[in-house]
Design goal:
The chain is α/β, with parallel strands linked by helices and 722 residues long. It has 18 helices and 26 strands. Strands 14, 15, 16, 17, 18, 19, 25 and 26 form an eight-stranded mixed beta sheet that branches. Strands 10-9-8-11 form a four-stranded mixed beta sheet. The protein has a four-stranded mixed beta sheet with strand order 13-24-21-20. Strand 5 and strand 6 form a beta hairpin. The longest helix has 30 residues. The relative contact order is 0.08. The protein binds S-adenosyl-L-homocysteine and N,N-dimethyl-L-histidine. N,N-dimethyl-L-histidine (AVI) binds next to strand 24. The site of S-adenosyl-L-homocysteine has 20 residues, from helix 11 and strand 15.
C-alpha cells in the first residue's frame, strides 16, 4: 500500500499513534451504529451472491484485523480457528474459505458470537495500538481501516438490496438524508493536454491508484453535475430501454435477459415511479441524480444524449481542478475506462497483494464516491470498480462530450477542405469559401482586424448593442437559450448577457475550435451561472442542439454582418435553416452592415497596417500547412474592391506573376494578374435586408441603425406561415 510521507507536516501519515487508536475506535463503533436498526434475522440473509449478510461483514472486517495485524503478534490467540475458513473473503494465499454465494447459510456462529469476536479483536488491537508499532504495521492498520470503511459502504448497499426484495420495502435507515437536487449540470470546457493522474504520494492510497503517471487528453467538456432522474425519465420516455441502437451488444443482451426497464430500485406505481432507498420507498425526484444504474445503462444513456462517459483520466483531471460538483456525495460515476493496472503498477507483496490487482479484468472503473461512502474515505485518485452489469452499488452518471467532433470528423473536415480547394482552384474563376480563413491564426487575425482604425463594423455594432441591449432583450423569456452563429470571441454576446440575466444557457457555434475554446473559457470565468455549451461546426449545415436545451425558449444571435459573407440564395437558405433550428417561435437578432460611401468601405477591407491582407493570405498559409501546398505568399497581392452591382465588398488574392502551385495532390496554374476570389461582404439597406428576411420566413420586429458609418441590428421573428 502506498503510504509515503506527506510533504505537509501534520497530515495522516505523520499523525501520532493515539490518533490512529482514535480512528480505529471510531471506525469500529460506526460499523455497529450502521447495523443498529437491523434485527438479527436481517443480518443473516444473503439476497444475492454479490451481496453479503450484515453479520458476515461484521465478522469479515474483524477477521481482517486479526489476520493481518494480530496473528503476527507474539502471544495472540485467534478467537476461533474456524473463523479463518468462514470469514476469509477471497485471499487464496490464506487458504480455503466459505463459498461467496453461501455466506447467507452461516446461521452459526450466531450474532452474539460475532459481537464477542469483534470485542475480542478490538481489545487486542487497542492494546497493540497503545504500543510503539512499526511502519509496516501502521501500513497494515491503515489498510484495515480503509478496508472496514469499504465494508461500511457494502453493508448499506447489501442491506438496501435485501430490503428492496421485501414487499414491505422497509427503511434500513429512516433518517438517512435525501440526495442533493438543485440546478441541472453545466458542461465545463477542459482544455486537455498532458495531465498527471494517480496518487500523488501523500497520505494513504490503495496500490491500484499508483504509480502516478502522465496521460494525454484531447480537449473535452464535462458536466459539473450528475445526470438526474428527470433526464432518465426522458430517456425512458424516448424508448431508451427498447432501442437496440443505443446499447452495447452485451448491454442489450442484459436488457432483454433481465427485463430492465428502469434503474435497479425503481418500481412503477399508480402514482408514478418510486424508488427504494435507505429511507424506504420514496417518489422518484426529477432533480436528484439517478442512482443504481449499470455501466451498460450509463453508456446507452450517454449515447442517447449525444455524449459519452468520461475516461478515468478525464474525470480525475477535472475533479482535481475543482471543476466538478457532486463528486463524492451522491453516486459513484461510471467511466469508460476498463479497470487495468496503471503503467508500472506493482501489487503489494504477500496476501495483501490480492487486495486489488487480481481483479483487473472484466470490470469498469467508477470514480468519485457516494452517499454511502464514509466521510474522508475517498480521494480524487480513488478507483472503484464493478462489472458492467452490476447496479446494486450506488452508481450514477456524469457525461462528457468531445469538443472536437472526433478524429473521424477531423479527417472528414480535412477531406472537405481538400475537395473544396481542388474544386475552387480548378474553376475558371478561382474562388475559395471565406470559412477557410478561420483556423486559430485566422481567428486571431480577424480579432486584429477588428482593432484596426479602418474596420468600423465591430466597434459600431458593439456600441449599438450596448445602447439598445435593454430594449433588445426585454422580451426574452426566462431560462432562455442564446444560440450564436459564428460566435468567434463572443465579445458582442456580453452586451446581451449583461442586459438579460434570464438567458441561462449559451450555445456558441463556430467553425474555429480554437476561438470557441478560448471564448468558452473566458465566459465560464466571467459568467459562472451561465451554462455554456460550445458546438464546433459549420453553421451552414444543420447543427444539432444539445438535447437538454431543445425544449427551452431559443433566441438566435448572428452579429458581425457575417450574413453578408453569403450570396443572396445562400443567405436565404441559411436563415431558413436557422428558423427551422430555432423553432416556430424563432427570434433572431442579426447584425448587418449598411451600404455606404466606397472610400469608407474599401479602407475597412484594406487597412494601412496590412492586417486584412495577412488575413486574406491566411487561407494560402492553411493550404500550405494542411494540404501540402506550395503557395508563395509574397507572390500574391491583397485586393479589396467595391462591387456596386452586387452591393458587396470583395476580397481577392491577385497573382503577381505566372506561376504553378501544388496543393492537395493537384497542380494549379495562375496567370499574372489572375484573381482568386476569397470573400464577399454584402452590404444592405433596411429594405434589401427586409426582403431577404421575408424570403426566409422572418418579419422584422424592429431595426436599430447606428449613426454613420451605418450598421444595423434587426430583431426578426418567424412568420407563422413560411
Ligand atoms: N460574431 C463575431 C465574429 C465574426 S467573424 C463578431 O461579430 O465579431 C466570423 C465568425 O464566424 C468567425 O469566428 C468564423 O470562425 C465563423 N465562421 C465563419 N464561417 C463559418 C461557418 N460556415 N460555420 C461556422 N462558423 C463560421
Ligand atoms: C466576418 N465577416 C463579417 C467579416 C467581413 O467584414 O466580411 C470578415 C472580414 N473580412 C475582411 N475583414 C473582415
Amino acid at each position: 500500500m502506498n503510504t509515503a510521507p506527506c510533504q505537509i507536516p501534520g497530515q495522516m501519515r505523520a499523525a501520532p499513534q493515539d490518533s490512529l487508536l482514535d480512528l480505529y475506535v471510531a471506525l469500529r463503533a460506526r460499523t455497529l451504529d450502521l447495523v443498529a436498526p437491523l434485527s438479527p434475522e436481517d443480518m443473516v440473509v444473503q439476497s444475492m451472491p454479490d451481496a453479503s449478510p450484515a453479520k458476515w461483514h461484521l465478522a469479515h472486517t474483524t477477521w481482517f484485523f486479526e489476520t493481518f495485524l494480530l496473528n503476527g503478534q507474539p502471544h495472540y490467540r485467534p478467537f476461533d480457528p474456524d473463523y479463518a475458513f468462514l470469514f476469509n473473503s477471497y485471499y487464496e494465499a490464506l487458504g480455503p474459505r466459505q463459498p461467496r454465494a453461501q455466506r447467507g447459510l452461516l446461521t452459526r456462529p450466531p450474532l452474539d458470537a460475532i459481537i464477542a469476536y469483534r470485542r475480542h479483536v478490538d481489545t487486542h488491537m487497542q492494546a497493540l495500538l497503545a504500543t510503539d508499532i512499526d511502519e509496516s504495521t501502521i501500513d497494515l492498520l491503515r489498510l484495515g481501516l480503509a478496508h472496514e470503511e469499504q465494508h461500511q459502504e457494502l453493508l448499506l448497499m447489501d442491506i438496501l438490496h435485501l430490503f428492496g426484495q421485501s414487499p414491505l420495502r422497509p427503511a434500513a435507515a429512516p433518517d438517512w438524508p435525501g440526495d442533493d437536487g438543485g440546478r441541472a449540470g453545466r458542461f465545463q470546457l477542459r482544455p486537455g493536454g498532458l495531465v498527471d493522474i494517480g496518487h500523488s504520494g501523500c497520505g494513504f492510497a490503495f496500490d491500484n491508484e499508483t504509480p502516478r503517471h502522465k496521460v494525454w487528453l484531447q480537449p473535452f467538456e464535462i458536466s459539473d453535475r450528475l445526470v438526474t432522474n428527470g433526464d432518465w425519465l426522458a430517456f425512458m420516455a424516448d424508448g431508451g430501454y427498447a432501442r437496440a441502437d443505443l446499447w452495447l451488444s452485451d448491454g442489450w443482451a442484459h436488457v432483454q435477459a433481465n427485463g430492465w426497464q428502469a434503474p435497479a430500485y425503481w418500481h412503477a406505481t399508480s402514482e408514478g415511479w418510486r424508488e427504494m432507498t435507505l429511507r424506504g420507498s420514496v417518489p422518484v425526484a426529477p432533480d436528484t441524480p439517478v442512482t443504481h444504474v449499470s455501466f451498460y445503462e450509463a453508456d446507452a444513456f450517454a449515447r442517447w444524449s449525444g455524449a459519452r462517459l468520461p475516461t478515468e483520466a478525464e474525470w480525475e483531471a477535472a475533479a482535481s481542478d475543482g471543476a466538478l460538483e457532486q463528486v463524492d456525495t451522491v453516486a459513484w460515476q461510471w467511466t469508460a475506462s476498463a479497470y487495468l493496472p496503471y503503467p508500472g503498477f506493482v501489487p503489494g507483496s504477500g496476501a495483501v497483494g490480492e487486495y486489488n490487482g487480481k481483479f483487473m479484468s472484466g470490470q469498469m472503473v467508477l470514480r468519485g464516491g457516494c452517499a454511502f461512502t464514509p466521510a474522508g474515505h475517498v480521494r480524487t485518485s480513488y478507483r472503484n470498480f464493478f462489472r458492467p452489469e452490476q447496479r446494486w452499488m450506488r452508481s450514477g452518471v456524469r457525461l462528457v462530450r468531445d469538443l472536437h467532433a472526433g478524429v473521424a470528423a477531423t479527417d472528414r473536415d480535412d477531406a472537405t477542405f481538400a475537395a473544396d480547394v481542388v474544386a475552387g482552384l480548378s474553376a475558371r474563376q478561382k474562388s475559395l469559401s471565406p470559412k477557410y480563413f478561420y483556423d486559430a491564426t485566422g481567428s486571431e487575425l480577424f480579432e486584429a482586424i477588428c482593432r484596426t482604425p479602418e474596420y468600423y463594423p465591430t466597434r459600431t455594432e458593439s456600441a449599438l448593442l450596448a445602447d439598445i441591449a435593454v430594449e433588445l432583450t426585454a422580451t426574452i423569456p426566462a431560462d432562455a437559450v442564446l444560440v450564436e452563429f459564428g460566435s468567434g470571441a463572443s465579445d458582442k454576446t456580453r452586451r446581451l448577457l449583461d442586459a438579460a440575466p434570464q438567458i441561462t444557457a449559451y450555445v456558441p457555434i463556430d467553425i474555429s475550435d480554437d476561438a470557441l475554446r478560448q471564448a468558452t473559457l473566458r465566459l465560464n470565468r466571467d459568467y459562472p451561472d451561465l451554462a455554456v455549451t460550445p458546438v464546433v461546426g459549420d453553421f451552414t449545415t444543420v447543427v444539432d442542439l444539445p438535447h437538454a436545451l431543445r425544449d427551452r425558449p431559443l433566441v438566435g444571435f448572428f452579429p458581425g454582418s457575417t450574413i453578408g459573407n453569403f450570396s443572396v440564395p445562400e443567405a436565404r437558405q441559411l436563415l431558413r435553416n436557422m428558423r427551422a433550428m430555432l423553432g416556430t417561435d424563432a427570434r433572431l437578432i442579426i447584425g448587418a452592415d449598411m451600404v455606404k460611401d466606397e472610400a469608407t468601405l474599401v479602407a475597412a477591407y484594406n487597412d494601412a497596417a496590412g492586417v486584412t491582407a495577412e488575413f486574406n493570405k491566411n487561407v494560402l498559409r492553411r493550404i500550405n500547412t494542411e494540404l501540402g501546398g506550395t503557395f508563395d505568399l509574397n507572390a500574391f497581392d491583397h485586393l479589396a474592391i467595391w462591387n456596386a452591382e452586387y452591393a458587396r465588398m470583395e476580397m481577392h488574392l491577385v497573382s503577381r506573376v505566372d506561376q504553378i502551385v501544388h496543393a492537395a495532390g493537384h497542380t494549379f496554374a495562375f496567370k499574372a494578374g489572375e484573381r482568386l476570389h476569397t470573400e464577399n461582404s454584402h452590404k444592405f439597406t433596411p429594405q434589401s435586408f427586409g426582403a431577404l428576411a421575408a424570403e426566409a420566413g422572418f418579419t422584422i420586429e424592429r431595426v436599430w441603425v447606428s449613426a454613420a458609418p451605418e450598421f444595423a441590428v434587426f430583431s426578426l421573428k418567424a412568420c407563422l406561415k413560411a
